[in-house]
Amino acid sequence: MTAYLYAFWKVGTSFPILSGKHGIVFLEQCIGRIGVVGVTIMAFLSGFGAVNYPYSCMTYFALSVSNSEIRTAERRLLQTVDMILVKRRRLAQFQFEARMKRTTNEKSNTFWNMLRTVGMSISSPRIDEKLLKHERTTNEKSNTFWNMLRTVGMSISSPRIDEKLLKHEISVLEDLSRQLFLELHYLRTAQERIEFSKTWKGKYFNCLGYFFCGYCCWKIFISIVNILLNRFGGQDPITRFMGITIHYLGFQIDVKFWSQQISFWLVGIIVVTSIRGLLITLTKFFHAIASTKSSNIIVLIIAQIMGTYFVSSVLLLRMNMTAEYRNMLNQVLGDLQFHFYHRWFDVIFLISAMCSIAFLYLAHKRVAEIKDDYIS
Questions:
Q1: Maximum C-alpha span of the chain
Q2: Are residues 142 and 44 part of one domain?
Q3: Is the domain of 146 the same as that of 259?
Q4: Which UniProt keywords apply (predicted)?
Q5: Are 52 and 90 part of one and the same domain?
Q6: Alpha-carbon span 114 to 116, nearest angstrom
Q7: Which phi-psi region, left, alpha or beta, contains residue 334 (left: φ > 0; alpha: ψ -120 to 50)?
Q8: Residue 336: helix, strand or coil by DSSP?
Q9: Distance CA 289, CA 368 (A)
């Protein structure tokens, strides 16, 4: 706990979260540090989502997979599984035979030793100790000799089955089966994606994919411009859009009043829907790892994540509000460097988007190579 609080407090020394006129106010200090962590997480997730959603929804990136390729992949997987079963059966049979032979040898040695001991006790009740040691040494040598002969006979009469070699072959085949299963899963997923894109719902998501693809390109371009030119947003998008629309269409509308109302409701909807989506995702994740002992810890983690997410959302959505609401928000949050958070969001968003593009490109290339392998 002490290490966590120390690391949390050190965040403020590495980032310009407060202006130079601030005092030693505990609330502003905490909000600034929470904002850095939350904005970093939000920017990373936003960058990945802005790239992954168009890729997963647009039919342009989907690969066409035929039923013959699926059947070929299934046949390879079944053949590999059959080979694993055969080798496992041979290994089990070999281990069983070796265990039975060891048991038989132990019983035969015990029986002959008992007979030898009884015969010696009947013929000579009193035997000198040196003679006993000599006979015991002779018996051990003879047993060793007969055991060597028995081992040679077993190796000649039965086929040589190396247990280590069998285990190695089984391990290699199991790795191959896992790889073939993943390849089959990739092909089936691609086929299901093509079939889903032919439905009305798939066409709707395809249109959304094109829209978000354009948004992703625009957001990446704007982030690069903001970083290079050290630019920050001024007028909120609602007021800008309404001003352009009224200018070209000639409507007589109170832009200031309606832009304030629409911005307020739009920001509220964005906050509610984003928090709802985050809650659903966290619920699914923690449901998979939850137990009776970790329930209290999970509740605390969810509460901390939700608080961080909410504060970060308010810091970022401030730019989408009008000047009146921005001033109100400034009075509540304190003297924070809001421009830093927007610039930091652009930097992390750009890094996350570029890494996501590279990752999805490699994954798409891998699936295409698997498909070409089954075609050839």
A1: 131
A2: no
A3: no
A4: Membrane, Transmembrane, Transmembrane helix
A5: no
A6: 5
A7: left
A8: strand
A9: 34
Phi, psi of 18 (to 5 degrees): -120, 150
pTM: 0.61
- Looking at residue 314, its amino acid is V
CA 114 to chain centre: 65
Taking the C-alpha atoms of residue 43 and residue 345, their distance in angstroms, rounded to an integer, is 5
How far apart, in whole angstroms, are the C-alpha atoms of residue 313 and residue 281? 17
Q: Tell me, yes or no, whether 57 and 87 share the same domain.
A: no
- Centre a 10 Å sphere on the Cβ of residue 279 and count the other Cβ atoms it contains: 14
Write the pLDDT tens digit of every residue in 109-141.
Answer: 665 566 565 555 555 544 445 544 555 555 554
Distance CA 40, CA 150 (A): 72
Tokens at 207, concatenated:
């249109």
How many independent structural domains does the chain possess? 2
User: What's 121's DSSP letter?
Assistant: H
Asked whether residue 81 falls in the same domain as residue 140, the answer is yes
- CA-to-CA separations, 298 to 1, 115, 129, 287, 308, in angstroms, rounded: 16, 71, 75, 10, 15
Mean pLDDT of the chain: 71
CA–CA distance, 185 with 370 (Å, rounded to integer): 11
How confident is the model over 262-315, as pLDDT tens digits? 666 665 665 566 566 666 666 766 666 666 666 677 777 777 777 777 777 777
Give the Cα separation of 348 and 246 in Å (integer).
35
What is the Cα 136 distance to its own chain's centre?
66
